Amino acid sequence: MSKRVDTVALTGVAARLVEVEVDMSRGLPTFNVVGLPEATVREAKERVRSALQNSGYALPSRRITINLAPADLPKDGGGYDLPMALGVLAAMGQIPPHHLENRLFMGELALDGRIKPVPGCLPAALFARERGIETLVVPYANGSEAALVPDINIAAATTLSELVNAINGSSVWPLVDKVDWHGWLTEQQVASRDLVDVRGQEYAKRALEVVAAGGHNMIMSGPPGSGKTLLARCLPDLLPPMTLSEALEVTAIYSVVGKLTGERPVVCQRPFRTPHHTASQVSLIGGGSTPRPGEVSMAHRGVLFLDEIPEFGRPVLEVLREPLEAGVVTVARAAGSVTFPARFQLVAACNPCPCGHFGDSMHMCRCSGYQIERYRARLSGPLLDRIDLHVEVPPVPFEKLGELPSGESSAQVRKRVVAAREIQLRRNGNGRLNADMEGNDLNRVTVLDGMSQDMLLQASRRMGFSARTYHRILRVARTIADLSGSEAIQLEHLAEAIHYRVGGRFLEEQEVR
Q1: Quick check: bond before 315 cis, omega within 30?
Q2: pLDDT at 42 over 90
Q3: DSSP letter assigned to residue 307
Q4: What is the pLDDT of residues 130-174, one digit of tens each?
Q5: Which 8-state DSSP code applies to residue 220?
Q6: Between the CA of residue 414 and those of 127, 230, 396, 411, 429, what are the distances in Å?
Q7: Are the beta carbons of 115 and 82 closer than 8 angstroms?
Q8: Worst-scoring range by mean pLDDT, 177-181, 399-403, 429-433?
Q9: 232 contact partners, CB below 8 Å, separation of at least 6
Q10: Would you place residue 369 in the very low, low, confident or very high pLDDT band (cuts 50, 70, 90)?
Q11: Is the pTM of this model over 0.70?
């Protein structure tokens, strides 16, 4: 008769129930694992065998078959070691089977019987609470992470023998105290950069404020050293603190990729991801034989900064289209598709030409017209069409840096950003910012008077705006109006939004020598 132990498999950032069935019968001594196991799971039999023997449990000379159900779900990772070992012990009569009921187990086994940490314990805890499961057993190093979820018992075991003693009632269950982490969200954010560090560039600072207030995307163009990277690093500190639900969403992603720490196993600050331009499609968008989140999902509810964006491979950049529109990434494989959350703000930076000095009055550009056109063609029109603000960041003369005022701090600007976002959330509903508005809802909140309609129509005809660009200008104008506290979009709000769309030198229609 087979014995059953429950565990979970990760599909994206969600958990699914997996039944570990262990059958021990007469026959040649073998140890087989079936149920679509990947290489790490097939190797688990050697880890399980050694961990059991080194914990004082000798395997009998029997035929052992372990089935991981459902059989059509790929199984990967070392988290199946612990439930497999407990199932074998139950089949040997070392553990009463009913002691394993209404409990989930996950953990990787070392050869000496220690229980090592595994990714995905937070999604497993959320799944267990949803299913009404009494106890989730995880490795000791993952205990504080799983304890973030209320209304479920979390046990964190150090060794296999310790856990078996607790299951059999000969020792106390190693339950973990609940983590009171809500106060961490209200702590002052640690700014990587402050706006007071940026001298001059008032136009770009204003654009950054608009980006933060409405959840928009932005691309900055300018010569090297003009402050594009510094401005981008100021954006996270302009954003309001994450809500409880946002923090759990982001923490679940970081749990799946194994990026949480034991001291503070929750992501309290908005992510700021800066992948190198040599990044592959899989590292950026996610994937692999067993799909894992990529950089766009790691930047969920935060900022994805692509410095020197034309240096990224064009096929790599094209995969950004779906998450920029939908806020999710769907990775399709033969065994099925997996969806990852990816609602981030894209901030990109580029030079106006390969040498970086096209249009710079202080330096001579040495690029040919063909080189400039080829450099600009690295970014496709459909991708640029999805970026709301195109901002030029001109160079600041060195001799004037000391004379320029420092301007407002990030904390001062953040107050206006928070106020504007509160207006949007009350008006738009469903937690949507202006950048997320579509269809009739967008038309409802972006009503224009006659003069404003004429201005936008003329700009659309002159610049050849697409329908997508038209609606993105309306969203940006709505954000500018919210920052000023205006219920209606005024002519000056729309004019500023149009200028943000056509003001970037990288896209500016100008004669190239």
Answers
A1: no
A2: yes
A3: T
A4: 999 999 999 999 999 999 998 999 999 999 999 999 999 998 989
A5: E
A6: 36, 17, 25, 5, 22
A7: yes
A8: 399-403
A9: 220, 303, 305, 307, 347, 349
A10: confident
A11: yes
CATH number for 186-502 (one of 3.80.10.10, 3.40.50.300, 3.40.50.10260, 3.90.1150.10): it is: 3.40.50.300
Contact 337, 324 (CB under 8 A): no
The rounded distance, in Å, linking the Cα atoms of 434 and 420 is: 10
C-alpha dist (Å) from residue 100 to 22, 86, 449: 13, 9, 68
| Residue-range domain boundaries for the chain | 3-168, 186-502
8-state DSSP, 183 = G
CA distance 295 to 274: 8
Q: Name the class of domain 3-168.
A: alpha beta
Tracing tokens 């990030």 back to the chain, one arrives at 410
**Inter-CA distances, 63 with 25, 29, 82, 130, Å:** 5, 5, 19, 36
Q: Determine the Cα–Cα distance for residues 314 and 327; give it in Å rounded to an integer.
A: 21
CB 445 within 8 A of CB 437: yes
Q: Is 408 exposed, middle or buried (0-12, 13-18, 19+ CB in 10 A)?
A: middle
- 3-168 with 186-502: one CATH topology? no
Higher pLDDT, 289 or 346: 346
Residue 143: closest CA among 154, 159, 132, 129: 154
